[in-house]
Each structure stands twice: as structure tokens, then as C-alpha cells.
TrEMBL record:
Gene Ontology molecular function, alphabetical: kinase activity
Alphabetical keyword list: Kinase, Transferase
UniProt cross-references to SUPFAM superfamilies, sorted A to Z: Actin-like ATPase domain, Winged helix' DNA-binding domain
Keyword Magnesium part of the UniProt annotation: no
Family, per entry: Belongs to the ROK (NagC/XylR) family.
Name of the featured protein: Sugar kinase
Length: 401
């Protein structure tokens, strides 16, 4: 028997209504962010809440600065009902893509609308210098958006490697000098002055391509980044798959290539990465007779013009890429593999030799597509991640119990 003054599940009358009110507020705010402006009757229909409940929850959201009136729809029948929308200015997000050569940053509001963008050279050659460079770039991007850095609700940083929360460090980021030192997350948070999330760049690119790029509507797909490094972001059952320790997708460490492997090679760098990343394309071109100075971009440009040594290098690269794709198909059976990165974006030049090599080594197939978001894939994934975190943070700060 329930004692007097109690509600089901043992909650006191003071707690249960408060929890329900918070749930209703969150439900309405999510609906407004997801589907855009709506009238109170529309919100009641969409959420299943009563109109009095919608009225009360909207009043709370307005008072907290999370929702606002948005005019009235144009109709020819009487006075139309008031529209309401989520207020995207209630918080801001900084998204950062750390590459070997470039730092790319975007500041957005809570509706993912871009407020500013900057791209700056990554000239840092130590972890400390890179922390300072990222912090300065975030401050510059905020200033460009006419905001103080303190107005940024959350910062999401896309980086090669795997973030280890216990150590506050990034593992397996051999292409960023010193980036693996302990305490990195704390240093970034202190220097930037906002809460910080660090995530793998290939995972964020996969999220970006899944939400608004080549992977839209695909439940099982892989995003394969081939550039200065090599990484794989996995979307399984519509969600990012990280594995037990977060290292799922660190395919640069797969021992593919031609054994025996050189004992003098960099142990921090994966065997496959050394055989497939941008510097490998340059090495293949040199071996075929091209002379310095060379970059992977220059090799692909020469191949497009029919330069034979460049075509030889591209064929070698395609054969290595085929080994990785065959392994991904065997382990994961994805519907789609989206290929991006400075090397991967040249899929049109690689595909003929790639398909020939795949026919020789495996009967397994996945549809291949070049990424639609290009160099912005990591940023788009970081924005999506940051916006979700920032919306929850702002809601909790203003209305959460």
C-alpha cells in the first residue's frame, strides 16, 4: 500500500511534477530544433502533449531564452496562430579540425548556422605550440563572429589518433609531434577556456558524411580517410562504432604490404599507413622516375595529364588501397565505403586500377563513393557533435534540475 503523500515509484509530489515538466520542456525544444518553427497546436499534435502542457513548457523555454516567438504563418483564413522556434543564439560551438598542415575552424550557433570560419597553417612542431595555436585560432574565430571566447558553449576538436580520457592524451597520432603527451585535454581546456571534446578525425568525418554527405540514409558504411595519415570511421546500425578502447578504425596499423617489414621503420606509424598515405604516393612516383620537388597532389595532377611515371605511382597506390578495401569488406561487410582525404578524393583516378586489383584478390564488394564534403567532412561532424552537447549544456544550465 502507498503511504499518504507518495506517488508511484516512491517519488514525492515535489519531485515527480518537476521531472515531468523538465522532460516536456526538453521534448518541445528538441522538436523545435529538429523540425523548425511550429504553432502550439502543431507542437501538441507532434509530441502528444496537451495544449495546456505545451503552453506552460513553451512559457518556460521563452523565459529561459531557449525559445522565442517567430511570427505568424501567412494564411487566408482568419488570424493565424503564433509560431515558435528554438533560439539558436542561446549557445555557440567551436569546431576544430587539426591536420598535419592546416587548422580549420568554424563557429556556429545551436542550429549549426555558421557564424565565422578561419583556415590557418599548422606550423606547430610541439604539443605545447599546437595547444597555443589551437587556442589562438579559436579566439580569432570567436572574434570574427563578434563573440568573446567565453561565449563559446563547447569546443569539439577533431584529431588523428584515439583520445584516452583517463590520461587526457591522444594515442596513435604519430603525424602530430608531441600530441600524445598526458594532460593534453586539460591543457586545451585551460588554454581555450571552454569545455572541450576531442574525437578521432575519421569518426567525425564519418558522422559528417552520414548526416549531410555521401552516407545520408545508409545504415552501415565506412568512411576511409587517406591523406597524410590513414584512418577509418565506422557507422554501424546508424551509429559510430569505436570498439573496446576507442581504436576501432585505426587501420593504418594493419600489417598489409610486402613483407619482410623494415625493422628501421617508424614504430609509431602503421605499416599500412606507410604504404598508403600521401608520402607513399610520392615515394612510388620517385621510384618510377619522377623528380623532386613532389607532393601527392602533384603526382595526381601529372597522372591526369598522362605522365607515365605518375600513372605508375597511382596504379601502385590503387593496389595498396585495394588490399585495405578487401579487408574492410571481409571484416565489416559495409554497404558503402566513402573515401576522402587528400589522396582519397582522387577516387576517379584510382578506381580503374583499384577495381582491377579487387577482382584479383576478393569476391566481396561494397559500393565506393568519394566524400561529398571534401575537406569539410571533419568540421561538419565536429559541428554536429558540438551542437548536440551544447544544446544539452545550455538546457541543463537554464532549466535542468
Amino acid at each position: 500500500m502507498r503511504s499518504a503523500g507518495q506517488t508511484p515509484a516512491g517519488l514525492t509530489p515535489a519531485v515527480a511534477p518537476s521531472l515531468m515538466r523538465t522532460m516536456n520542456q526538453r521534448l518541445l525544444l528538441d522538436r523545435l530544433f529538429t523540425n523548425g518553427p511550429a504553432t502550439r497546436p502543431q507542437l501538441a499534435r507532434d509530441t502528444g502533449l496537451s495544449q495546456p502542457t505545451v503552453h506552460a513548457a513553451l512559457a518556460d523555454l521563452e523565459q529561459a531564452g531557449l525559445a522565442r516567438a517567430a511570427g505568424r504563418p501567412e494564411t487566408g483564413h482568419g488570424r493565424p496562430a503564433q509560431l515558435y522556434e528554438a533560439d539558436p543564439s542561446a549557445g555557440t560551438v567551436a569546431a576544430v579540425d587539426i591536420g598535419h598542415d592546416w587548422l580549420r575552424l568554424v563557429v556556429t550557433d545551436l542550429a549549426s548556422n555558421q557564424l565565422s570560419r578561419i583556415d590557418v597553417r599548422n606550423d606547430a612542431r610541439s604539443a605545447r605550440a599546437l595547444v597555443e595555436r589551437v587556442s589562438a585560432a579559436v579566439a580569432d574565430a570567436a572574434a570574427k563572429a563578434s563573440l568573446p571566447t567565453t561565449a563559446i558553449t563547447h569546443t569539439v576538436i577533431g584529431s588523428p589518433g584515439v583520445f584516452r580520457p583517463q590520461q587526457g592524451s591522444v594515442a596513435y597520432a604519430a603525424n602530430l609531434p608531441g600530441w600524445q603527451r598526458p594532460g593534453l585535454a586539460e591543457a586545451l581546456t585551460a588554454q581555450i577556456g571552454t569545455p572541450v571534446t576531442i574525437d578521432n578525425d575519421a569518426n567525425l568525418a564519418a558522422l559528417g558524411e552520414h548526416s549531410e554527405g555521401a552516407g545520408r540514409g545508409v545504415t552501415h558504411f565506412a568512411y576511409l580517410h587517406v591523406g597524410t595519415g590513414v584512418g577509418l570511421g565506422l557507422i554501424l546500425n546508424g551509429h559510430i562504432y569505436r570498439g573496446f578502447s576507442g581504436a576501432a578504425g585505426e587501420v593504418g596499423y594493419i600489417p598489409l604490404g610486402e613483407p619482410p617489414y623494415d625493422q628501421a621503420r617508424n614504430p609509431e606509424r602503421g605499416i599500412l599507413e606507410e604504404a598508403l598515405a600521401a608520402d607513399a604516393v610520392v615515394a612510388y612516383a620517385r621510384a618510377a622516375g619522377m623528380s623532386d620537388p613532389l607532393t601527392a597532389a602533384a603526382v595526381f595532377a601529372a597522372a591526369r595529364e598522362g605522365v607515365q611515371p605518375a600513372l605508375t605511382a597511382v596504379r601502385r597506390e590503387a593496389e595498396r588501397l585495394a588490399q585495405l578495401i578487401a579487408a574492410v569488406c571481409a571484416f565489416l561487410d559495409p554497404e558503402l565505403i566513402v573515401i576522402g582525404g587528400g589522396v582519397g578524393q582522387n577516387l576517379d583516378m584510382l578506381e580503374s586500377d583499384l577495381q582491377t586489383a579487387l577482382q584479383r584478390i576478393t569476391p566481396l564488394r561494397a559500393r565506393l563513393a568519394v566524400g561529398e564534403l571534401g575537406t569539410d567532412a571533419v568540421l561538419r561532424g565536429a559541428i554536429a557533435t558540438g551542437v548536440a552537447i551544447a544544446r544539452e549544456a545550455v538546457f541543463t544550465a537554464r532549466l535542468g534540475s
